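User: Show me an example of a complex going from sequences to structure tokens.

Assistant: Sure. Here are the input components:
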Amino acid sequence: MDISIKIKDTVFANPILLASGTFGYGSDFVSVINQVGGFITKGITLAPRIGNPAPRIYELPGAILNSVGLENPGALDFRNKILPRLNFSTPLIVNIAGFDTADFSTIVKILDCDRIAGFEINISCPNVKTGGAIFGQDPKLTEQIVTEVRRATKKLVITKLTANFIDPVNTAQAAESAGTDAISLINTLYGLAIDLKEQKYFLGGKTGGLSGPAIKPFALFCVERVSKAIKIPVIGGGGIVNATDVCEFMLAGASLVQIGSLNLINPFAAFDILKDLKKYMKIYKIKAIRQIIGKVRSNDDKNNTCG
Amino acid sequence: MKIERAELIKKLSLSDTVFAFDLASKTIARKAKPGQFIQIRIFDSFDPFLRRPFSFASVLGDRFRIVFRVRGKGTKILSQCHSGQYLDILGPLGKPIAQLQNQRLVLIGGGVGIAPLFFLAQRLGPSNHLTLLLGAKNRKELIMLKDFKNLTKNIALTTEDGSFGKKGKVTDLLRNSEFGIRDSGLKIFACGPWPMLRAIQKRFGSIPVYGFLEERMGCGTGICFCCAVKKKDGGYLRVCQEGPVVNLSQVEI
């Protein structure tokens, strides 16, 4: 049974990645990180950021709305103080965010080293006033940022797109032509919560990003749509909570998947998902997990499902 | 830390809205230290989505107690659990309170905030001198009083309706109390609502006041950065990681 996936030169032992912002910087739960296919850090910006005021999280059925606001120590402190302490063997992907188009390649130049397997360009954070999702809503800015990052590193470059208010096919194609190795989507969706008692915004950062099982159908829709429009691999995520969700995203066209919100309620969830994933492969006689990527069949296809 | 399935051994209703759960888990009970907490998964259906944090109110052998007030959907569902049921628990979490020896300690608790102070008092060695100031809405909500009285005689009590102890809030006891502002060697631990913590911090200038902080929490394990409380020297601390018990002079309250 083969559950590994290769993208460019990076071999992921299995298709499970831990999504940015939901698992810290990688210094905790190392036993979990060592079992997954890849680890993506919390977003790193050029300068340190203290993040948004509390409350930073709001809860609703099957979903959470967060407004952390990219709290992070900045690229230099991440490189000097955090990176040397990360001792896991799983491919390490650094999520990078910027407020100016030039920030991204500058951060990459600061961080690029052998310890890092690649970068995830975050042009989809909904919780900052400038940059973030605004870059990801413009195919031209997307192309410019990816081109600069591509020039700055030979490592794996993933571009994390937003699906807020735009068709991600346009930005995915822009990122593809600028040389990104993979597309990841979707980041959180725009959301607002209002505190009725106080008649004010609930979150300290006013608006937030929606994630969790409630957004899964939309995420699947986007993954399928984008993967059909580009040639490079798609990394899918949005509300994955179990191995069946993983299979669904892969059938829809994802080569790898990201687990996000689930980590907040069960940091060990990846163990169960991997165990169940192998079980499903046995039941459905799947020899290599890569065989199911994009293999969702149309409803009038009469052929047998498996074997 | 691990995820444990702990049996609800005994459920007590301390008042109309306050419940005490005695839970059995060898692993959690043996590791638990004062100041720490657990995260309970209410349902596995993702509604409520997040776990709910609860401080340890006491630990005895392989069992531990949590005390909570029904405040929203999560605590409401939890309050309807029956003994014999198993709960999905992550913990112990948070930074323990450092070992205390030869200290003069004042523990101030308001409402259900009284509960975590009991575990702290329970674990204090005999070398410490202990004073308790506890306040609640009424006699019934002055929870765990018998347990506290078994630990020390130095207890002052208040109720807002005057049904027991002195009438008023627990912070009223500080106005004319025996504790001087320059009383060096004194340490205060306070657990209760933010206005209570604010009043206590204001009353004691240079005496260290350690408050049990509360903020909307995501993971409880330090990886999501949601439970942020503003620090005085800039930036935020995570209640679940640098707290929940911190010196109140370090934070904006």
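The lines above are the inputs; the final block is the predicted structure for all two components together. The mean pLDDT of chain B is 93.
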